[in-house]
């Protein structure tokens, strides 16, 4: 199928990191400005931004660079707006965007003001109607609350649901992680639905984050964990014991871990290009997608970092279809199944099902 077919299909994105999804053109523009100010040497960072193949270690070095480029509130607002517009432009109808609230005293940034800048970005989106507040929240300044129109295949204006997950970075302390969880709780009415644990998987200990994650779950926030990006049986075990609502990646599980994971039926966010580029999985031929798909394990195809890995959700659907022999219907069904794994209320699920039902009629045309 041509790319256009994947682009026009409604899609659900559940694993996208804000700072990993920034357009290359925006990063280059920001780098040029910082270069002119003498903060960085543009020629040193240009090739880092444009490089395609990166190991997992290099990816985390790139994130450190991106974070220098996207430091201030205005830029956070800008990239949030652009990332949502980019996802909407390829007919992502539901987006769970995750980001790590950052504190930077030198520019007066607190975790709260970082998140407020993200929320400003959501409100600034103007190429698409955004529904970002839960149905039960005070909807006095909701931008758009109902999306039951046909979002794909030629209706007037695109629409997208956006929910936020706040990430805890594995470099953080228990106190910092707890601050993130408390912020998420305060911002629930503004579309924050859950907590993610991410960051360099060879840094930090599970027990550092456990108290904050446990508290988050007790308070009713949803939890997704980056799990098994590197071999670490003890941590994988502890994470599965925790019973998160979803996990990301699951690349380095041993047989016993697969057995347990499958019996728990925890949905997994699969990021094909990311896993291959970072060498977390040797090649697409041996990717665990095939086994999970054949065992009917709940899974959702995601981008991870569409900017860093030069991908898009349409490209990931295309890759899964060609690598694993799935047709248009198979991929459509996977996207529709993902509605069951989203961290939003039943009303959103119902409306998304309507979108998929109306789009299904056009699948075979
Ligand atoms: P941000 O949270 O700053 O918006 O997005 C970038 C951050 O997401 C990175 O610094 C890192 O903590 C996390 N991240 C992005 N991609 C990956 C990934 O593939 N694996 C892990 N473990 N963390 C990631």
Automatic annotation (TrEMBL):
Where does the source fall among the domains of life? Eukaryota
GO BP terms, alphabetized:
adenosine catabolic process; inosine biosynthetic process; nucleotide metabolic process
SUPFAM superfamilies in the record: Metallo-dependent hydrolases (SSF51556)
Pfam families referenced in this protein's UniProt entry, alphabetically: A_deaminase (PF00962)
| InterPro entries in alphabetical order | A_deaminase_dom (IPR001365), Ado/ade_deaminase (IPR006330), Metal_Hydrolase (IPR032466)
Q: Where is the Adenosine deaminase domain?
A: 10-354
Which cofactors are required for activity? Zn(2+)
- CDD domains to which the protein is assigned, alphabetical: ADA_AMPD
Reactions that this protein is recorded to catalyse: N(6)-methyl-AMP + H2O + H(+) = IMP + methylamine
What keywords is this UniProt entry annotated with?
Hydrolase, Metal-binding, Nucleotide metabolism, Zinc
Q: Name one GO molecular function term.
A: adenosine deaminase activity
Gene3D superfamilies of this UniProt entry?
Metal-dependent hydrolases
PANTHER family xref list: ADENOSINE DEAMINASE, ADENOSINE DEAMINASE-LIKE PROTEIN
**Its family?**
Belongs to the metallo-dependent hydrolases superfamily. Adenosine and AMP deaminases family.
**What name is this protein filed under?**
Adenosine deaminase domain-containing protein
Species of provenance? Prunus persica
Q: Kindly list the organism's lineage.
A: Eukaryota, Viridiplantae, Streptophyta, Embryophyta, Tracheophyta
